[in-house]
Amino acid sequence: MVNTETLLRSAEARLQRLSAERLRVADDFLAYLEEREADEATRELLSIAGFEQVFQDAVKQAREGDLVSFEDIRRNV
Q1: What is the mean pLDDT of residues 48-56?
Q2: Is there a domain that residue 35 lies in?
């Protein structure tokens, strides 16, 4: 298994050697991959039974200021 830091250093070294035009293409491709990953995560969450309704309820509560501070619910563990 390859270390994330090693992959990032390798990718950065490759990007440094690209022309401006190829760098633009690489950036577009990375943006595409990033969007796909976000879409997959969203689909995974939406596949959880009842998630969408619970999420909408939470957004509504936040909008209305119906919140509890972390300090009020934190336990000493």
Answers
A1: 94
A2: yes
| Overall pTM > 0.90 | no
73 domain-assigned: no
> Is 7 part of any domain?
no
Q: Which domain holds residue 40?
A: 20-66
How far from the centroid of its chain's Cα atoms is residue 21's Cα? 27
HEC profile of the chain = CCCHHHHHHHHHHHHHCCCHHHHHHHHHHHHHHHHHHHHHHHHHHHCCCCHHHHHHHHHHHHHCCCCCCHHHHCCCC
Question: What are 12-49's pLDDT values in tens digits?
Answer: 999 999 999 999 999 999 999 999 999 999 999 999 99
